[in-house]
């Protein structure tokens, strides 16, 4: 029974997070605040630590390079969590 209550609480928190993100932060003009908000919040339950562990243990990343100079590159690495098995 405790696990069901916990999952409901997590779902509610995640729904609130997504709603706030969609309504306030998704505009093109708030990238800086958007980044800090996403870094400051986490989904909890050890998921943040596990995502960080997976990224650290992945293959080494090479910086972006164009015409012999390093350039900023955006990398999106989707991480999917599955409960139970």
UniProtKB/TrEMBL annotation:
Keywords: Membrane, Transmembrane, Transmembrane helix. It comes from the Bacteria. The chain crosses the membrane at residues 6-25. This is Energy transducer TonB. It comes from Roseihalotalea indica.
